[in-house]
Every structure is written in C-alpha cells, then in structure tokens.
Amino acid sequence: MTTQAMGQITIRSIGAGGDGVANLPDGQIYVPFTLPGEVANVARDKNRATVMALLETSPERQAPACQHFEDCGGCALQHWQDEPYRLWKRELVVSALKGRGIDTEVAPLVACQPRTRRRAVFAARKTEKGVLLGFNRHLSHEIIDIVECAVTVPEIIARLDDLREVGALIAPGSKPFKLAATQTESGLDLAASGCGKLSDEQRRALTALVMKKGFARLSHEGEIIVEPKKPLIHFGKVPVPVPPGCFLQATADAEEAMVSLVLSHLGKAKRVADLFCGVGTFALRIAEKSAVHAVENDALALAALDRGVRHVQGLKPVSVERRDLFRRPLMPKELLPYNAVVFDPPRAGAEEQALELAKSKVEKVVAVSCNPVTLARDLAILVKGGYRVTRVTPIDQFLWSPHVEAVATLVKK
C-alpha cells in the first residue's frame, strides 16, 4: 500500500460504513475512528486515510469501552457518544427509505446494551508462542489477540484461554482458521472452520478437552466432533436443540424487541406464514396465539424447529416446509390462506418473495431485515402492490458497528 502525506482535513460527516468523511477537491476520503468537526493530519491511500495526528477533537468524542478499540476491527464507533451515535444509526434507515421514495414514521432507535452478543466468530492462528485468538485488524488479515470484548457476553470472554486450548489442538499448522462460540442454555457451543481434515488423534484429544472444560459441543465444518450436552435455546415456551452453525439473532435483547414488534402487529391474525423462519425465532412465539406455516431452506434448522414443537403442548398448529424462497417464492394463490406474513431474509433481502407478496391479498405483513438498503427495496415493491408502511423501527443489534436491524410493519390498503 502506498500512502501520501497530506495537510489538514476536516471531517464533515460519518459515512454509511462508520468512517469519518472529508470532502476534498478530487472527491471524498474515508477516515476511520474520527467524528464530524474533527481536524486531523492524515496519510492518504486513494480514497482512504489514516489519522497521523488529531488536531481538534469533537465534543461528542468519548473514551472507548474496550482497550482493543482501533486495533481490533470488530467495532467502528465506540468513540462516539450515545445520543449522536443513535441518531446517526436511525438516519441510516431513514435515508435508505427516502432513497426508495418511502415516507413513513421511523421510530427512535431501540438501544441494546454492551456485552450482550451471544455469538462471537473469532479469527485464530497457531504460532510458536501459542494461539492468537481475536478479531482481524481494521481492513487487514492481521489477528489482534484479545483479552476483553465490550460487545460479547462475559460467559464467552471468560473462556478465552480455554478456547485457545481448543485452537491449539484443532489448528491447521500455522494457517488462520475460525472458531465460533455461541452461548446457549446448555453451555458454550463451539464451531470451527477452515481447519482441514482432522486426524483420529486430534478428534480424541479434542473430545477429551471439550469434556474436561464443560463445553456443550464442538463441531467442525458442520460435523459434530463431540456433544456432551445438546445446545438448547428457548424461543418462547419451546426449547430448540440448535444445529451447528445455525442462524441466531445476535443478542437476546434485540430478539425480544423484534418479537414484541412482530406480535403486536399480527394482533389476532388466525393464520400466519413465517418465511425464512430459521429455527423458529418468530414462528414459535407466534404459535402461542396463531396457526403458523414455517418456511425455510435450511433442513437442519427446520428439523430443529419441528423437533422443539413436538415436545411442547398448548401451541396452535405449526406446519413446516423446506423451500428455497429465492428460487420458489410463495405465489399469491399459496398465500390465500394467511391473514399475515412475516419474513426475515438474509442481507440480500427477499425481492422475489416481495414481488409475489405484492400481488397477494394478505392483510398484514412484517418485514425484518439487517440491511436497510434491501429492506427499502422490498418495501417499495410492496408499496407499489398496494401496501402501506405503517412504521419502521430500527434496532441497534450490532452495537458500535455500521450495521442496523429494522422491523417494518405494513397493511394492505
């Protein structure tokens, strides 16, 4: 990377990626870990720059919550005070909606607390001195070895040394790999990837270590190596045995906020379709009052949902369907039995399903998304088809990052 020294720059705003933005005669440059109004000397590389000296600081600047901030690339905005940070994050959603011509009520950002992320995906690498375990430096493959984390639950951070012991046994030589840890009601669920083929000796050693340390499970590339306790998470009344690597909402607090918004909008709907349902985050709560048809392409997630339902009494009927909704969205005729639809797709959104839903007669829709841009696109499709967006609520599930969750509620005009 070649850099060139520059004179002073003034940060004018925070961009969608969480970096400070400065306007120069030849265009904008992006400067991480800065705030609006700050003046800095920087070293520039094309449209990015690094602060060499901060000359004037913003009154909105605060001390970061973690000693690794600015080294570790996990957080972008710990240095910004809560109020302006939350206004900026809400504006990410407002701006995306306006870009698609959607003018609707956007609620204040629902705040989430530090140290509540229940899953961490660590970057790891074995060295002569031990196992590096942490997160990659900002825009780099360098692993920052961490001793704390201000966003992850303490139950995971307290086990960093134990995770390094697992890493030492599973590491593919000196090559980097991933080790994810998820907090469940049964203990930590560990999932490794990028470790190559494991030998029988490695498997025996890992089994003994996992048993000794009291972890619930260890899997590698989706294959269970050892499972002393089946990892369980309750969704409402239903205990679900979560499969390795399955999608979960990042924090339990954000999940509860989303569920509350979904249930409030559904009201007394008798039959609901939950699309991209995963392991049942919404479906299993909805089933306490409404019949639910849960649709998902991940066979393991769907099987876990179904298994959980079979062990709980008092729910309304829950049916499941494995289906790739990107290739085969539910058609208007198939949607006729439902009073309401909930969809929570991956970041790419649900464009194909939104196009069919727009032609349907479904009375109420709830769209949940971790990407305001694709959410706005999908909402615009539904609006064109005769729906009205009643409210959008942003949720700060990804604290101190540029990512934001949102729940949009719609009704058929």
Automatic annotation (TrEMBL):
GO molecular function, one term: 4 iron, 4 sulfur cluster binding
Cited Gene3D superfamilies: 2.40.50.1070, Nucleic acid-binding proteins, Vaccinia Virus protein VP39
UniProt-listed Pfam families: tRNA_U5-meth_tr
Residues annotated for S-adenosyl-L-methionine binding in this entry: 249, 276, 296, 344
InterPro entries with a match to the protein in the record: MeTrfase_TrmA_AS, NA-bd_OB-fold, SAM-dependent_MTases_sf, U5_MeTrfase_fam
UniProt entry tagged with the keyword Iron-sulfur: yes
Keyword terms: 4Fe-4S, Iron, Iron-sulfur, Metal-binding, Methyltransferase, S-adenosyl-L-methionine, Transferase
Full protein name: (Uracil-5)-methyltransferase
PANTHER family in the cross-refs: 23S RRNA (URACIL(1939)-C(5))-METHYLTRANSFERASE RLMD, RNA M5U METHYLTRANSFERASE
Active site: 370
UniProt source species: Brucella anthropi (strain ATCC 49188 / DSM 6882 / CCUG 24695 / JCM 21032 / LMG 3331 / NBRC 15819 / NCTC 12168 / Alc 37) (Ochrobactrum anthropi)
A biological process term (GO) from this entry: rRNA base methylation
Family statement: Belongs to the class I-like SAM-binding methyltransferase superfamily. RNA M5U methyltransferase family.
